[in-house]
Amino acid sequence: MDCAFITAAARDVKSLIAHFILENAGAATKLGTVTLAPHQSGAVVRIQRTLAEFHGAFLCDAVGSGKTYIGLAVAQDAVSPLIVAPAALRGMWLSAIEATESRARFVSLESLSRSAPRVSDCDMLIVDEAHHFRNCGTKRYGELARAARGRPILLMTATPIHNSRRDFENLASLFLGARARHLSAQEITRLVIRRDKTRVTAPIPEVMETQWMEIGDDAQMVRDLFSLPPPVAPRDTGEAGALAAHGLVRQWASSEAALAAALKRRRTRGAALESALEAGDHPSLIELRSWTAGDEAVQLGLAGILSPDTPSSTDELLAAVRAHLSALDCLWPLVRANHALDDERAAHLQEILLAHPGARVVAFASYEATVITLFDRLLHSNRMACLTSKGARVAGGRISRADAIRQFDPASKRVPDSDRIDLLLTTDLLSEGVNLQVASVIVHLDLPWTAARLEQRVGRAARVGSAARRVFVYGFKPPPSAERALRASALVSAKWIAAAATIGADGEPGLDTPRAKPESSPESHETLRALLATWKTRSPRVGRVPLVGAVQAQRAGFLAVVGSGSDWLILGGGEHVTDSPSEVSRLAASAHETDVVVSDCVYKAALESIDEWLSIRKSAQIAGLDDTRFLRSRRKVFAGVDAFTANSSPICRIRNAQTVARIRAAAAGTLGAEDERTILSLEQFDSGETQEWLASVAASAKRSSVSKTQDYSVRALLLLIPTTAPSP
Fold it and tell me: Which residues, 6+ apart, have CB-to-CB distance to 80 below 8 Å?
């Protein structure tokens, strides 16, 4: 191989490395009346490259960092971009569209559960709060997958993972299909931009460590709830009762009022079901589900327990209903009489208000009854409002939802002291997408199921444009008996760690703090980019041969930039050559400032190892080995094509040979979930439907981005020489 190179000072090599990796990263961009911050404009350039490479991208910056304007900037060249977001964010998005003079239109994600969006003239999709599509079994997911066919899609959410890595994979499947199940750390890094608040160039308040407040206990109440007879006689005896009891304990952990409201609804539905059974009507599965899992918060599904063929006669169901209602009637007086824990919660909330005189406080709960009971207890001694799905209330009566929220928007006009709201009690209805930057205190009135929800709550106040320098956070612990029964803290912590390891996570993992927070590949890459930004001193010289240098370091190895055109990759070398973001970041962090003189043979050895790595990778691509994980994920698609071919007559096989070859070629490329579903559902490969689908795939499908590395060459090399080692 040709090992020609030019030796230069280490600072010049560092600057060249930064130049290739960070090129155009901070270009200023103005949209209408909005000027993007450097971190926003830098993200635009990176997302556009990712969209060109994968036909999809993730923007997972921390809550409150200004993702809305980044999304509109990415879409500025689109003719008719479509915004998909929760209906509650319609006003915010329409205001942003107007301010940026964008051509985008808005459709609510809720509407996708009812019908398909109009996308015939849409040439780009932007999905805000995209985690709402993490379940690939829902109707809304299917509609979005169909809308995403042949169109670039930007998925924006600070919390793509609520439960496990599968949440992220389902989202990535919208444009990558089954390939999303086998993404490497390096591929995830190319797909995802994830900056925490320390990487945001616009000011964001410091979030103080959560102060968790103890709540009393009533161990007998938890025992009574788990002693309730099952609401129906399921095939798997006892499981439905356990699940129903878990739901009731969870509500009691939020407030005694929430438990009372749940039992009241349960008694009402049970009485109605009893009447139907007495009349000889056999209730439907939907009615049974509504009775057992229809509480105001999202409950666990019972589809595997209450199946249509559950062997229960009307008499057996009637007996189960009456037994359950009888137990509820016995429990009801105890629940109505107990309110000591809710009094304690109200006292704690009053303490928080007194500790922050003049501050605006927002308190979140999972259940409306919790919000309402605390509002009623504190109403006469505080200037406060409660906001639920039923509307907003203050001491004087009902007000509009917009008026309640407006007081926590720094852009709104100041209201008279007589109308001022110091405390806003609300459900998680306001935990997403709403700007409450005037608030400087956030209170978790209960512990939700996921750390993502905790992060979303805090992010309503700790965001760009906040009026506060610091945001204080408080939380009410679950009663000890509820915590032992539900293990809620451990579950929240496990979900937080799953998110942190895959994408990254802000905030705290509930009540349990892990020994060490794992660093995700996207976070490692952002750490590296921040370091490279300090290396970029001036416009470096870019020649035809590599620029090389050596510097003292804590670790032995090297850093190198390889690539071609506008596609550049940074590699690290120690015991072996790697593109692992975490390993490359650690190597870069070990570099010092002092130059080291080394012999040319050391540079040549490093260049040869890099060239060997590129050659092996290129050979793997040519042999198809580099796509093994990817093609394995398409096994079901290929099997469908092969099965159809095997069952065809010899004449049909000959006639369809070219079409089958085109389908297999398309399946080997980057297809979204909807295109994969289409392949599996094709009944006639020579039909007009198939030919039309192939034409659309040919226009939009792209081969795996890895193929670009075939023509990569080394452009910069920095040797890392341990300070304790003698110079060669």
Answer: 103, 104, 105, 121, 122, 123, 124
pLDDT, residue 538, reads: 74
* Rounded Cα gap, residues 156 and 158, in angstroms: 7
**Paired tokens of 155:** 């998925």
CB 321 within 8 A of CB 274: yes
Task: Report residue 475: phi and psi, to 5°.
Answer: -150, 150
Closest CA to 90 of 116, 129, 55, 50: 129
Q: Is 546 helix (H, G, I), strand (E, B) or coil?
A: coil
CATH for 206-214+340-502 (3.40.50.300, 3.10.20.740, 3.30.390.50, 3.30.110.10):
3.40.50.300
Nearest-angstrom CA–CA distance, 651 and 294: 57
Count of other CB atoms within 10 angstroms of residue 223: 11
Contact 95, 127 (CB under 8 A): no
Backbone angles phi, psi at 127, to 5 degrees: -110, 115
CATH code for residues 22-199: 3.40.50.10810
Same fold, 22-199 and 206-214+340-502: yes
Q: What are the residue ranges of helices labelled H in 505-599?
A: 521-535, 581-589
Question: Are 368 and 427 a contacting pair, CB within 8 Å?
Answer: yes
What one-character-per-residue DSSP string does 163-202 give? Answer: SSHHHHHHHHHHHHGGGGGG--HHHHHHHEE---GGG-SS
Q: How far apart are CA 420 and CA 360, in angstroms?
A: 10
The rounded distance, in Å, linking the Cα atoms of 657 and 162 is 45
pLDDT tens for each residue of 360-369: 999 999 999 9
What is the token pair recorded at 144? 């979005």
Please state the φ and ψ torsions of residue 156, each to the nearest 5 degrees.
-115, 120
DSSP secondary structure code for residue 687 in this structure: S
Give buried/exposed letters for 379-402 (b at 16+ CB in 10 A, else e).
Answer: beebebbbbbeeebbbeeeebebe
Q: Are 160 and 188 in contact (CB under 8 A)?
A: no
Please return the burial class of 202, using the count of CB atoms within 10 Å of its CB with bins 0-12, 13-18 and 19+: middle
List of residues 6+ apart from 302 with CB closer than 8 A: 234, 240, 243, 289, 292, 293
Percentage of residues of the chain with pLDDT beyond 90: 44
SS (H, E, C) 459-506: HCCCCCCCCCCEEEEEEECCCHHHHHHHCHHHHHHHHHHHHHHHCCCC
* DSSP strand pairing (81-85 vs 105-108): parallel
Look at residues 409, 411, 452, 410 and name the one whose alpha carbon lies nearest to residue 431: 452
Q: What is the pLDDT of residue 446?
A: 95
Q: Where do the domains of the chain lie?
A: 22-199, 206-214+340-502, 219-337
Whether the per-residue pLDDT at 309 is higher than 60: the answer is no
Rounded CA-CA distance 526/478 in Å is 36
pLDDT at res. 121: 81
Q: What is the C-alpha to C-alpha distance for residues 679 and 145, in angstroms, rounded to an integer?
A: 14
Instruction: Tell me how far apart the alpha carbons of residues 306 and 236 are, in angstroms, rounded to a whole number.
Output: 9
- Cα three-residue angle 679-683-689, rounded to 5 degrees: 70
Q: Amino acid identity, residue 49?
A: R
